[in-house]
Structure formats: C-alpha cells, structure tokens
Amino acid sequence: MSSVIDNTHTCQFIQGEWQAGKGIAFESVNPANGEVIWRGQGADAAQVDGAVKAARSAFYLWSAKPLAERLQVVEAFAAELTANTETMARLIAEETGKALWESRTEVAAMTGKIAISIRAHNERTGTVENPMPGARAFIRHKPHGVVAVFGPYNFPGHLPNGHIVPALIAGNVVLFKPSELTPKVAEYTVQLWQQAGLPAGVISLLQGEVATGKALAGHPGIDGLFFTGSSNTGHLLHQQYAGQPGKILALEMGGNNPLLVKDVENIDAAVHDIIQSAFISSGQRCTCARRLFLQQGAKGDAILAKLVEATSKIKVGQPFAEEQPFYGAMISAKAAAAMVKAQADIQAAGGVSLLELTQVDPALGFVTPGIIDVTKAAPLPDEEHFGPLLKVYRYEDFDAAIDEANNTAFGLSAGLLGDNEADYQHFFGRIRAGIVNWNKPITGASSAAPFGGIGASGNHRASAYYAADYCAYPVSSVEASSVSLPATLSPGLSI
Ligand SMILES: NC(=O)C1=CN([C@@H]2O[C@H](COP(=O)(O)OP(=O)(O)OC[C@H]3O[C@@H](n4cnc5c(N)ncnc54)[C@H](O)[C@@H]3O)[C@@H](O)[C@H]2O)C=CC1
Ligand SMILES: O=C(O)CCC(=O)N[C@@H](CCC(=O)O)C(=O)O
C-alpha cells in the first residue's frame, strides 16, 4: 500500500502503469481527526482519453478469454481481499470515519460479491439453447465493451465493487472513477486487482474531482456508465446521455425512505429496527429511513418515547476505539455541518426537535443523532438528508400515512413494522419502492437480491444480483453448420 502523501503521488492507473495525475490537485482527509491522509492530482482530459483508448485494445483481449480464465482472475481478487481484509477495513475506517466493526462488514460484502456475481452471471446471462428444426437456436450474452464505473463515498469499497466485479465477469473492461473523498480506498482496491493478475488496461483508475468525472462521462469512447451516487449527479448524467440509446446507463441513486409503524407489541424490537434503519453508518446509507410514520395515541407515544431514549444513548465515537461506537464520523466536517443546517431549516418550517442533532467539533465529522417531529410543520422539500436525522410524522389513518409515504419523487426503500400480516399485504400493494421490508430494518440489503429504486432513485437498472443484466446484452442466434435448401420453398419462389 502506498503511503506517499505528495502531489507527485502515482495515483492514476492507466494501461497497467501507475502514474501521477496531471489535473487538479485534491486531498483526502480523515474526518475523525482532520489529518490529511492522501494527496494527489486528478486525471486530466488527456489522461482520461489515453485510458479510454487503452481500454478499447484491452477489451478485445479480455472479452475473448474463456469465461473460466476471467473467473480465475476474479477469484484471485477475492483471495487478495480475504488475505488483506484487515488492511482494507482499516483504510475504509480511516478514510470514511466509519466504525471499524462496520468497515469489516463492508469488506466481507466485497468478498461475498464474487461468488454471488458468478452465480448471477450464469443464471441471468448464461447461454440457452432452444429446440429448432434443422438448426440450433441460441440465446447468448455479450459484454458492452468499455464501461465507466462511478462510485460514492459511503461504501467506497463495496458499491463500486458491485459494478466492477459483474462487469469484468461479463467481459467488459472498466474505467473506475471513485469518489474524490475516498481515493485511498480506491487506490488499494485497484492494487489488489493488479496483484490478482488482471491484465493491463482491463481496469483503469481515474482519480479526481468533478472535472475528471465530467471528462470520463462525456468521453465518446465509452459504451456505458454504471453510477452509484446522488440523485442530482445521476439526473445530470441522465440528461447527458439523452439521445444516445446505444449507451447503457445504470443509475443507483438516493432516497427519501419511509418507515411505517402500526400495531406493534414488541416496542423494544421496533425501536431497534428503527435505529438500525435510520442511524446505521451515521445515516449515510441510501437505504436509511428518513421519515418515520407513527400512530397518534398511546401506542405511538410509547414507541416514540423509547426511541428518543434509546437514540440518545447511541454511542458515537472514534472508528478505531477499543470499545466500538455504533457509528463513527460522517464523511467530512462539511457534511456534518450540512446536517446541522438541514435540521435548522426543518425547525424553521415548524419541526420540533425531540433530540437535537449536534456537530461535536466543527473541524470533524462527528454528529449525534437527531429526531424531529414534523407532523405540524409546513410542507418540507422532498430532499434526501444524508445523515442521522429522522423526521417523525404522527398519523391517524393508515392509508393517509401510506399516501404521505409515497409523496416523494424517490422510491428506493420502504418498510412496515407491524404485527398484522393483512396490513403488510395492504402496504406492499400500495407502497412504491424497489426495496420493501416487513418487520426488518430497511437497511442491510442482500447482494443476492436485486437492489435499486424507482422514480428519482434509479432508472430501472437494478444492481446487486441483477447487475449482471446491465453488464451484458442478449444476442439471439439461429445457427446451422452449412447452408441447405429448405424442404419446401415459400410460395412464388423457384431456385
Ligand atoms: N442507490 C444506491 O445504490 C446508492 C446511492 N447512494 C447515494 O450516493 C450519495 C452519496 O454519494 P456521493 O459520493 O455524495 O455522490 P455524488 O453524486 O456526489 O458522487 C458520485 C460520483 O459522481 C462523480 N460526479 C459528481 N458530479 C459529477 C458530474 N457532474 N459529472 C460526472 N461525475 C460526477 C463524483 O466525483 C463521484 O465519483 C447519496 O445521495 C446516496 O443516497 C449511495 C450508496 C448507494
Ligand atoms: O449491492 C449490494 O450488494 C447490496 C446493496 C447494499 O449493500 N446496500 C446497502 C448499502 C447501500 C447504501 O445504502 O448506500 C444497504 O442496503 O444498506
């Protein structure tokens, strides 16, 4: 692992060579102590262009390899991850501020992704032969070619990995543009691919801020773009790709996710699932519950009282503390301050804080969790607040609560905590989201299931188990070993 921290840092990986960036300088800061842990320069447009061209040559070689050979490299990467789990977990914790216990689960998800992606590739994009007289009819799948992968900061290992692994298995080559907030994790990830024996040019690392992202996304030489990140950026990319039906665009974006509670006996269990849904990873999961719907009256009051009490005891602390916190720092002091501002805006609209979110130190990313009752507030903007702030809506009528839960442009995750199965069936029928859970947290989605949202949360290209689908296109073939005249000719033909 490189420990160089200067502007000549060889942080771009192009055509199998590490080289310094020639674009804008940027740095990565540990949000839990304010230390600069990485410095480098972004890839400029010429470097992006060079990487795209190198990728095109690599594509012909990589896609022509038998699947078994590609899988050997992918499995070698899994072995590298396994051997270096602790190094990777510590890097994630250092760069994102995520607690070490949780960073370890992120690495486990990365490693687990390999076997699941192989299964998904075979099951969803394998080869099928259909019976046909006098010929053989096949359904096969081919890779798109040169694809760009854009990753977010909140899971800097797992989420780009969720595009990269299936893309490589299918035979694509990848240009990886990680979040500028997590370049160190990205660099180490690509070093592990290199150690796994991935041929030169099959993966390129193009680090940098928005300028690098724009140069890559706008490059005419890419065949597709797989994006996980904010809805704003995803929408910009969608506009940019309008009128280009030949390019595959997969967008995984944020949410304004509702969690409803109705007639629950076990208050402690409900409170646990609300906390896991709203506050895990300091609220920095796209699946986190942002809006909690609680019944008016004694039942809702009891849950709310317990929720406020339990949330006030959540341990927030240093990612590497021996006694581990529930969550560590947010990604940056700036992101933490933005959550304080979001809370103030909701208060100004009439929200009543039941537990105040506070930034512990203005120079760092730590925030305590917040709960705010917005039942009587003015209508709020339909925004994703990407941090540990939960808005509470008290409701009288279940259907009205479901309507309000659906009153969002987003549609990523949603859940019901409730003891009555008929309520769940009713909820399931009406709620609009790509992930709908019952009596379980709405975070912690499985890689063995499709993962994606509707509306402003995605463009119907679900990831995780269904990532195989956007990594390859289907080809239908009718084949015979030689040309032959049919037994009967079509009317009006004589040969
Ligand atoms: N649905 C999903 O699977 C997930 C969605 N997210 C969402 O991601 C967001 C947090 O991640 P961020 O890193 O803040 O996302 P972001 O949208 O700011 O950045 C994502 C990537 O896009 C690049 N980028 C930004 N502006 C660009 C532009 N104009 N042109 C080209 N590239 C550009 C960034 O450099 C980065 O590599 C949250 O909104 C969260 O909900 C996070 C994880 C999972
Ligand atoms: O891609 C997968 O393998 C499953 C998706 C996943 O891991 N989702 C996580 C985190 C994604 C996020 O919220 O940013 C989850 O459901 O909590």
UniProtKB/TrEMBL annotation:
Name of the protein: N-succinylglutamate 5-semialdehyde dehydrogenase
Active site, renumbered: E252, C286
Keyword presence, Phosphoprotein: no
Keywords (A to Z) from UniProt: Arginine metabolism, NAD, Oxidoreductase
InterPro entries: Ald_DH/histidinol_DH (IPR016161), Ald_DH_C (IPR016163), Ald_DH_CS_CYS (IPR016160), Ald_DH_CS_GLU (IPR029510), Ald_DH_N (IPR016162), Aldehyde_DH_dom (IPR015590), SuccinylGlu_semiald_DH_AstD (IPR017649)
Catalytic activity reported: N-succinyl-L-glutamate 5-semialdehyde + NAD(+) + H2O = N-succinyl-L-glutamate + NADH + 2 H(+)
Signal peptide start and end residues: none
Enzyme class: oxidoreductase
Source organism (scientific name): Shewanella cyperi
UniProt family annotation: Belongs to the aldehyde dehydrogenase family. AstD subfamily.
EC number: 1.2.1.71
Example GO molecular function: succinylglutamate-semialdehyde dehydrogenase activity
Residues annotated to bind NAD(+): G229, S230, S231, N232, T233, G234
Domain Aldehyde dehydrogenase, chain residue ranges per copy: 18-469
